[in-house]
Design brief:
The structure holds two protein chains of two kinds.
Chain A (H helix, E strand, L loop, with lengths): L1 H20 L6 E11 L2 E3 L2 E4 L3 E12 L2 E12 L18 E14 L2 E12 L14 E10 L5 E9 L5 E15 L4 E13 L19 E18 L3 E14 L2 H4 L9 E14 L6
Antiparallel strand pairs in A: 1-4, 1-14, 2-3, 4-5, 5-6, 6-7, 7-8, 8-9, 9-10, 10-11, 11-12, 12-13, 13-14
Chain B lengths: L1 H18 L2 E5 L16 E8 L8 E2 L10 E2 L4 E8 L5 E7 L6 H15 L6 E5 L5 E2 L6 H6 L8 H20 L2 E11 L4 E3 L2 H4 L18 H4 L4 E11 L4 E11 L12 E2 L2 H18 L12 E6 L5 E3 L11 E5 L10 E5 L3 H32 L10 E9 L4 H4 L9 H4 L1 E2 L2 E2 L6 E2 L3 E2 L23 H4 L2 H7 L6 E9 L2 E5 L3 E2 L1 H18 L5 E5 L8 E2 L2 H6 L2 H4 L7 H14 L15 E6 L17 E8 L2 E10 L17 E4 L6 E4 L5 E7 L4 E8 L5 E7 L2 E2 L3 E3 L8
Parallel strand pairs in B: 4-13, 6-7, 12-14, 24-26, 25-27
Antiparallel strand pairs in B: 1-28, 2-5, 2-9, 3-8, 4-33, 5-6, 9-11, 10-15, 11-12, 16-17, 18-23, 19-20, 21-22, 23-24, 29-30, 30-34, 31-32, 31-35, 33-34, 35-36, 35-37
Helix pairs in contact in B: 2-4, 7-8, 13-16
Classes of the chains: A mainly beta, B alpha+beta.
Amino acid sequence: MQADALGERVVWSGLAYLLVVLPPAAAQVAARFDVSTSTRYVWHGISRAAGATAQPSLAAGLRVGRLSVEGGAVRHYELDRVTAGEISEIGAGAGHRGEDDLWGRAALEVGPARLDGGVVRYLFHGDSTRGGLGAGRNTTELYAALSISGTYFNPSLEAWWDVDRVHGAYLRAAVSGPLLGWPFPPYVFTFFDGDIGLNLGQGPDVSRPGKPANFADRGITHVGIGAEMQLRGGPGPGAGSLTFSVGFRSQINIDDATRFNGLGKTNDIVVWAWTGVTLVLGGERQSR
Amino acid sequence: MKWALRALAAAAAAVAAACGPARLQLPAALSPVPRPDAATPLQAGFARVDITPPPGVGLAGNGPESGRARGYRLRLYARVLVLADGGGNRLAIVVADLPLGSALLQRRVAAVTAPRDGIGVDRLVIAVTHTHAGPGHYFDATAYNDQGSSVVGYDPVMVDSLAARIARAVHAAVADLRPARVAWGSRRVWGYTRIRSLPAMLRNIPPPTAAADAPPGLFPEYRLVDPELSMLRVDQLDPADGRYHPGGAFSIFAMHGTGNSPVNDLLDADIHGIVERRLERHIDRDLNQRGDTPFVPRAFYLFANGAEGDVSPAWPPQSRCSVPELTVLHVLDGPFTRPQWTWRSPTAARVAACQHAARQAIEWIGAALGDSAVRLFDALGDAVSDRMELARAFVTVPLRDSALALGICPTPALGMSALAGADDSHSRVEGWKLLGVFDVGLEQGSNNSSGSGCHGQKRTMLQQLFGDLPNRMLVAGQLPAYAQFTVLRLGSRLIGTLPAEATTTAGREMRSRMLAAASARGLPVTAALILGLTNGYMEYITTPEEYTAQYYEGGSMLYGPGEAAMVSRTLVRLVTQLSGGDSLPSARVPPLRLEVGTRRKIVPRRRSGPEPVPAFLKAWCSGDTLYARLRLGSVGDWAVPTGDVSPQPRVAIVGDGADRPVLSWDDDPLFELRLEDGRHGIATWELRWSGAVRGRYRVRVGDRESDAIACQGGRLSDN
């Protein structure tokens, strides 16, 4: 636990460093605050909580030319009272704080392409004796992503490596595209997105019984699709904005781990909705 | 419980009222019965008023591509010509440097001028130059206040301010009425305008042909324009010497006010402003030999628009900036939060390049047209006469209520091609397809293939899926519901005014029918003209053939394919009703019930307290451009706070010699003032003057001057 607390302090210090110490004159500094609520918390296709959840997060970043360095933290709260057998990170009858995630990354933009490399530290606060996820599930993942911005489609490919607990790779391919962009303020954007997960090394290893695993089998874990609407106001590029978002997502579960929906319960398809508010301060200026 | 329900209902009503469009009801102030005085000769009076609003207002005309004004270049004026005769007739023609006509504005002005000056709605013509670098927020329909600019909303302060200033100018022109001599003439000006929707025009039957004197080397889109510059020259009697002196002119020429790129942040009178100033200064300096030419010319040139619906100025393609693109905005979208979407604008460097090209085109076209106006004005000097018959006919047409009788569609509709923008200046959604595959009609020539329904070939929003429902629910209510038409007879010319932009061919047909009607009535007129963008705005009027092409103009003909015929019939009927020396029955001018959009406080309000003391903060030169930062006035100040015409500039560039010659001021194509900072309501401006040569200059505000600024001159690229 002490190591995790230390890691948390390091991330906070890093964020402060990004904002206060590092910026050269030509840098663009930005901060982002999000609060979202959802009817389900799903990560990499796996349902972590099936009730109402809330996720406050903050992030800060620094951009110099095509390169940006960013970091942030997210908290996951479960708002419902969890009963025994229900899928949950906190566990039956426990508190509300399920997970903290700290992340940092560097990104390089080259034309329409963007290359990301980063790290995520997962810290679980649930009670494993009551069916939650405890500190024993803490882990760290490295990831790299390549995304392309297009007029109609924005494909991306992410590769994740668990370097702490599971020690394996997971791929995620995603695509998003606009359905509507209202050109007058307050701006409204409606778009779809979809993703597919592929487990390459985060499943069980028959040669090493007892090795932790995230998925049941090697191969496709899930196929998801969703839609989102963003309503944005604010002074504009470079100055900040306030965005209200609402969306839904549905997912076909293929791997047993993604189908798991509580003790003795499985779901082939899950649908959930979410809404959130995002405040961005600073940020990207005109740059096309 | 009842009180709670009542409170809830009241709250809901209050919210609905606050969120819904502002509604107005406007009666018409008709002109009083004239008092003839046979001894009174033909009289003319001119006036001008500054209508340059403070920075912060939206620039209207390019929809979402129109930005917020940060300052101004050429000031905006409303120029007024009042004509009067012995029959007691008075007619006021206003040409304002504004984007669109507004029935709301016209009625507000008439409410003041009818009782005071005898000029009611039936004798008041407010035309606009159609500069797309003019302010919005004063229109008579929701669509234009809420979607005419990226700065959304209707602001009553804009309407009140414009109306008060224009009414004051009409009053001043009436006070200036003096015996006058006038002459009509015209001249063809080739090469500075072009047809922007040529494929639509070529659908006309018979096909359009160029005039016999069209220069053979021009491309078809340049040869098929209506090149006629019509002018009424007005000389006024100077009581001091008992002689007639050139006073000014009124012209009609078909050309969009789109010299500036849509990506523009300055209020500007555009090409029309340069043409106006060129003739005005010629009259002052060359004809009247006024060596004391003040800041604002004494002469007046009302340069109005004709049937310019499909006519662009001859600006080059590089003067149009790229439009914003819808794209993912990766702002701190970490692994657990989602990316945001945005309209991403082109870079500042690209914008600067296209704006520079646009400025060059404006100056080139403006100078050429201005020189043509000068030559025409001079040529008319020997033809002036003190005789000119004046008559007028006016009607307000409730479009929706009378649709069946008028032969137009009862529900207005906007075509998808209108959303794509004009063929030479696309909007950001032009060519966009759903998922890159499914055509939603956002392109020129987007047709309703079945051609069924009142709107025929017009393809409306989501029509293929939901029929007329989306248009009825989301669009129709925002569009104008009235049209005001006037026919003026000014001597040998008939002028049909439209609250719209007629295409070249549609305008030609209207003129022909008006002339035929006048001939049938035995009126001694030799030509009919179309004065567009007047006393309201109902977008475009095309011929039925052009409508079938569903280019931008056809998609913007709101009341369907019968609209051109309706307008022609109305103008012909007005020709038969032309009269002078009478008052109109009020039945011809019903009250307007308008929905004007979201009421918002957009025009910056003046700060209370003492006027800030002007201060020079910084000044430097780079190449041929002199820059200065200066504190001047409050952010809510109009360029001329009182609404009069300023006797001197706010800011001037003077030479550093002993006599301090004035070289430029804040009404010059080379001079730009941008608001840099408005904290505490005090305005800090950035001045740019791009006329510097090697030498030393000072910036002058009132009686204060900056320190001398040394400039090397020449373009940066020359160094």
